[in-house]
Amino acid sequence: MIEQPVATAAESLRTTWLIGKFQGVKAATGPTGNLIARLETPNFLIDGDRSTLTGVVNNNTAQPLTASVRLDATGLTVDGSPTMNVDVPAGGATNVKWTVTARGAADADLKLRAWTAGGVSDGVEQTVSVEPHASHSDVWQSGSLVNFVDRNITLDHDAMPASSHLRIRLSPSVSSALVPAWQYLSEYPYGGTDSTASVLIGNCILARNKDAIKPAPAVTARLVDEITRGELRLGRFQHDDGGWSWFPSGHADLWMTTYATWSLLMARDAGYAPNDAVLTAAMKQTASLAKEWMAKERVEYGEPSSLALAAIVLARGGDKVTAAKAVDYIMGHRDDVGPITYYNWTGDRACCVIAAHDIGGAYATKASTWMEDLWSKRMRLGELAAWQVEPHQQAQGAYQAVPDTGATAWAMIAAETVSPTDPRLDSVARWIMANRTGDYWVSPGVTAVTLMALGPYIAASHEREPDFDATVTVNGKVVKTQHFGTESLADPDTVFDIAGGDLGTSSTVHLQKVGQGRLYYSLDLRQSKAVGGIPPPMSTWQRWYDRVWHPERLEAPFEPSGYRITRVYLRNTSRRNAIWEDTVPTRSKDYQVNDDVIVRLIVDATHAGSHLIIEEPVPAGCTIGEVSSDEEESWDSWWDYTDVRDDKIVFFVGDLTRGRHEIDYHLHASAPGTYDVMPTSITGTFDPTLHVNGKPDRVTVK
């Protein structure tokens, strides 16, 4: 298809520069040539999408030109001829359109060339990511071995082998696992107060223990810059009263304030003093909020509790009087059971041990006593040891919770505070290493706390010097052999992938070690699971019938977590009669180019929740516009923060009340085609097990 575009030659030149800058395009000639070729594409595609790619040819001469234009698209199926002949007016431009279909999940390499019989030519190369028509899941297995171990790997029946893989990590020591965890923190994509503080904590741990961890010179060189950036970012996020919220637009609370303040104190103790005014205001607000908390408890969502973490911050920051009051309050209420909270969690008790030790005097003696009580409540798992979120009481009967990484890390920090050379720490460190989720632990917050626990452990040199050979066999075939010696302690994990097509439905991974030392391993099976076909849209008659006779069919059931997410596509439709005219949003998934698409996300909650992340994929042929909420009487949205990406929009919800909430956002239909949209999802920051999925959709742009 050939069109004459409205854009002028100058606008086309400016657009060429923008595409080349932001989409990784390589132009064959500069923007001053007589013939300029550029390519307009969606930012991404989903396997199976049909889209229209537009080649734009600019003629910068004073004479009309006849040009041949060719599109080569590796990874896409092009309808019709890839080469077209077009007439380009003098000083003008011509559009050439190709209809393509995405086949297979891989990057599509595009090459557009334009040339004339007179030898004038130009070209451009571009890559478009093609994502699988699938959702993703990870299944981890971790552990350590002295001789050998066999692990079974099973692909789910609906997994797509070509888009799945098994990632294997090998470490000869705890120290070699810390750098990948630090990199996970530094590359975490969402920059709220908690994740910024977690990154700062990870940087400080690495800086304080770099002699023992021995990171690569490039990592060491980044630390000072990373710490400075973290301190400055927290300074920008700080409220006028000295507190912090999840994102700057939210309301300050005790948890975020104490967590941010603690990260600044860790930077200070590592030799990177933060701004005095920021830290002073933070300490003052922490004390104020802690006193308010003890006067009237709030609903709690963290583990350990906000007040327990505040006790550490106050003690370490010098306000030992308020810290002692917080410790006494927690230990006096640790056996209370009520509708709001109680302080029987492992993390709370561990924080009290740490705070009491820092307060000193009689409290230091209490810290030793409380730590021994905490040791008595650990779970002994063969040669390993760990803690549950809430210590199990044998008298409570049948149910016993599984050990928890965060609780175990807090207990380990408390034990190191009281007695850093306690030999029982070995069994705890080994359990933590055996429960990695890939190259990190559960979430940014848990990873930061785990690094705090393992940093002093490594510095105390508990581990023996490795000298062994490791062999990895998959289904009887050797896929990796490697020697680990003392020189390996400064290296990062050994990481390699096994393609899903080489695994089969069920596979056995055999890991063997010969020699002195301990091998830590992690197996991460990342599966792409096919998302089923998109159901046809419901007719108006069927929707009316169900609304009257079967209203339960119109809404999906709640997930076991008590949440439900629904996505509705709308378009503004005119209504008129002899007296008035207006527009109303009506359901539609069929649009024209340049239409305004209204997307409504409906979140239903049977109970309150906190610190949730809503990830909303967008159609490939649309771009994101404005965002609005259902609370028109307020300038503030009911969520805390919005992060816009090329392929999705992310909403961060600090506090979600029971009931129904809506988010409206607008898309601009930009590229003709048929596009599948993957399900909207809700995940929990403090509860990694919480995962809610909506339904897939299909949007058509004509």
Average pLDDT, all residues: 84
Low-confidence stretches: 4-32, 337-341, 392-400, 630-635
Q: Determine the CATH topology of the largest domain.
A: Glycosyltransferase
Strand content: 25-35%
The tally of strands reads: 34
Q: What overall form do the CA principal axes indicate?
A: globular
Rg over CA atoms: 29 Å
Tell me roughly what share of residues is in helical segments. Answer: 25-40%
CATH class of the largest domain: Mainly Alpha
Question: Any chance you could write out the topology, listing elements then pairs?
Answer:
Layout: E1 2-3, H1 9-22, E2 26-27, E3 35-40, E4 44-46, E5 50-59, E6 65-74, E7 76-78, E8 83-88, E9 93-102, E10 108-116, E11 121-131, E12 134-145, E13 148-154, E14 165-171, H2 175-186, H3 193-208, H4 210-213, H5 217-237, H6 254-269, H7 276-295, H8 306-317, H9 320-332, H10 346-359, H11 362-376, E15 379-381, E16 384-386, H12 405-418, H13 425-433, H14 444-459, E17 467-474, E18 477-484, E19 494-499, E20 506-516, E21 519-530, H15 540-549, E22 563-576, E23 581-587, E24 590-591, E25 596-605, E26 609-617, E27 622-629, E28 641-644, E29 648-656, E30 659-669, E31 673-677, E32 681-684, E33 691-693, E34 697-701
Parallel strand pairs: 4-11, 24-34
Antiparallel strand pairs: 1-9, 2-11, 3-5, 5-9, 5-31, 6-8, 6-10, 7-9, 10-11, 12-21, 13-20, 14-19, 14-21, 15-16, 17-18, 17-20, 22-23, 22-25, 25-30, 26-29, 26-32, 27-30, 28-29, 31-34, 32-33
